[in-house]
């Protein structure tokens, strides 16, 4: 299908982009175009204007900032995956990004685009939620920080106001003793997650000292498996881990679609959480 008519704007700076967006509530940011352009072609989105931020260097790059890694919104998935700063400072992001789509899409699609798109089936929202990332939004009024727990409002609805652009995300570094894993169940090698689980586990003296678990595609937004996180604290690797992971789907309302019914998704969440936690904890 041919997209509905739209204006095309290529601002020379982030400030200029914010100005255009502030003046037109139907304008949309265009980053890598890997999600937005298919929606335009299907006429599921018909913005008045596309504000192409693709060449704004201000939004690109990965920076080690001591206690956290800052990933610029326009950094491509491929750059994120290959960044030594990401691999060292927030390895879970690199691990999960390798599961996003295929190499061609990873070369065009961006870290910030995946998060601003707020698709609960996307792999990265659950990862940033599990790591307690902090979103940095810019507008004519300046910068605003949004905790990951408040960023994902509903299906495809991020907590960005009109005139705001996502500049990047701060990912806190987790120190010694942490292990990480992303487990994804999908139809084919490069497809979207039917369910995904991001796990960060800290071990101390043979027990789990802390666990952070993010769930992909188990509701309208990415979710934390809070009951499992609490139940895992202080347990040794063994039967108690399985019992704790059996609570991973508690309180969730997973979607029903062509690929899976809610009950099957709940089953997958329990199984994948067990696998992800064991792998993150370094279990044999
Ligand atoms: C065939 C296919 C398979 C895919 N498989 C997967 C998969 O397995 N896992 C997965 O996670 N993703 C998958 N994707 C999505 C891919 O990761 C996209 O890169 C990503 O969803 C969007 O990034 P983008 O830079 O292309 O954003 P765009 O398509 O340009 O934009 C997406 C949305 O975010 C907004 N936006 C973008 N950047 C900003 C910003 N800086 N500030 C404010 N708003 C912004 C846009 O306005 C738009 O609403 C797939 C895509 C395709 C086409």
UniProtKB/TrEMBL annotation:
<dbReference type="Pfam" id="PF03450">
    <property type="entry name" value="CO_deh_flav_C"/>
</dbReference>
<keyword id="KW-0285">Flavoprotein</keyword>
<dbReference type="InterPro" id="IPR005107">
    <property type="entry name" value="CO_DH_flav_C"/>
</dbReference>
<keyword id="KW-0560">Oxidoreductase</keyword>
<protein>
    <submittedName>
        <fullName>Xanthine dehydrogenase family protein subunit M</fullName>
    </submittedName>
</protein>
<dbReference type="InterPro" id="IPR036683">
    <property type="entry name" value="CO_DH_flav_C_dom_sf"/>
</dbReference>
<feature type="domain" description="FAD-binding PCMH-type">
    <location>
        <begin position="1"/>
        <end position="176"/>
    </location>
</feature>
<dbReference type="InterPro" id="IPR002346">
    <property type="entry name" value="Mopterin_DH_FAD-bd"/>
</dbReference>
<dbReference type="InterPro" id="IPR016169">
    <property type="entry name" value="FAD-bd_PCMH_sub2"/>
</dbReference>
<dbReference type="InterPro" id="IPR016167">
    <property type="entry name" value="FAD-bd_PCMH_sub1"/>
</dbReference>
<dbReference type="InterPro" id="IPR016166">
    <property type="entry name" value="FAD-bd_PCMH"/>
</dbReference>
<keyword id="KW-0274">FAD</keyword>
<dbReference type="InterPro" id="IPR051312">
    <property type="entry name" value="Diverse_Substr_Oxidored"/>
</dbReference>
<dbReference type="Pfam" id="PF00941">
    <property type="entry name" value="FAD_binding_5"/>
</dbReference>
<dbReference type="InterPro" id="IPR036318">
    <property type="entry name" value="FAD-bd_PCMH-like_sf"/>
</dbReference>
């Amino acid at each position: 299908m041919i997209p509905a008519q739209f204006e095309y704007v290529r601002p020379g700076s982030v400030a200029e982009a914010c100005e255009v967006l502030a003046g037109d509530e139907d304008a949309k940011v265009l980053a890598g175009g890997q999600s937005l352009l298919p929606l335009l072609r299907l006429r599921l989105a018909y913005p008045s204007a596309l504000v192409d931020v693709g060449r704004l260097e201000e939004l690109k790059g990965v920076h080690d900032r001591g206690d956290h890694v800052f990933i610029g919104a326009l950094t491509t998935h491929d750059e994120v995956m290959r960044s030594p700063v990401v691999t060292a400072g927030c390895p879970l992001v690199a691990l999960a990004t390798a599961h996003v789509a295929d190499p061609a899409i990873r070369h065009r699609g961006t870290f910030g685009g995946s998060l601003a798109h707020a698709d609960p089936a996307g792999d990265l929202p659950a990862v940033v939620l599990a790591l307690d990332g902090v979103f940095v939004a810019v507008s004519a009024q300046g910068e605003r920080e949004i905790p990951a727990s408040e960023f994902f409002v509903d299906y495809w609805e991020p907590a960005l106001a009109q005139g705001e652009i996502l500049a990047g995300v701060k990912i806190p570094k987790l120190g010694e003793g942490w292990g990480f894993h992303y487990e994804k169940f999908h139809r084919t090698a490069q497809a979207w997650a039917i369910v995904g689980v991001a796990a960060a586990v800290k071990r101390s003296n043979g027990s789990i000292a802390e666990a952070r678990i993010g769930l992909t595609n188990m509701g309208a937004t990415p979710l934390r498996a809070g009951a499992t996180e609490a139940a895992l604290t202080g347990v040794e690797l063994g039967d108690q881990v399985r019992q704790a992971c059996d609570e991973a789907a508690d309180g969730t309302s997973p979607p029903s679609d062509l690929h899976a019914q809610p009950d099957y998704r709940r089953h997958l969440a329990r199984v994948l959480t067990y696998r992800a936690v064991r792998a993150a904890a370094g279990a044999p």
